[in-house]
Specification:
With about 130 residues, this protein is mainly α. The chain is built from 4 helices and no strands.
């Protein structure tokens, strides 16, 4: 078998070139993967809409708990759930400031309870109408 002699300078250049090609391939794969992840992530506007919807749902759940606790009382399981909702709302909307939340609650309680009572009456009326139409 005949050996081909490769000058040392050429061998170093060939190894450097091979490493550079592998590195370029790896970087290209990483860049493609990062682009795919970035396109899969929701945009900032979508994230803010999701956050707003979550905040609205949390506030709605808080008022439902407050109304039920005021009008008929809650059991242990409901009370634990409502307590967690209260804490989440206090932290997210008021930065943990109980006095700020108390002030907000006092300002909005009457209107929120009236809206829930009205909605409850509307549901009860619709059920009664369906029952009598049979």
């Amino acid at each position: 078998m005949t050996r081909i002699a490769i000058p040392a300078e050429r061998a170093v250049f060939s190894k450097t070139r091979s490493v550079a090609l592998v590195l370029a391939a790896v970087l290209t794969c990483l860049n493609t993967q990062a682009d795919a992840q970035e396109s899969a992530r929701p945009s900032r506007s979508e994230q803010s809409i999701d956050a707003r919807q979550l905040a609205e749902a949390l506030e709605k759940d808080f008022w439902a708990c407050d109304y039920v606790a005021t009008t008929r009382g809650v059991g242990l399981d409901e009370g634990a759930t409502c307590g967690a909702i209260f804490e989440d709302l206090k932290r997210s909307k008021f930065g943990g400031d109980f006095r700020a939340m108390l002030s907000w609650w006092q300002q909005h309680k009457a209107a929120e309870h009236l809206a829930l009572a009205t909605a409850g009456r509307n549901v009860a009326t619709a059920k009664a109408d369906r029952a009598t139409s049979r």
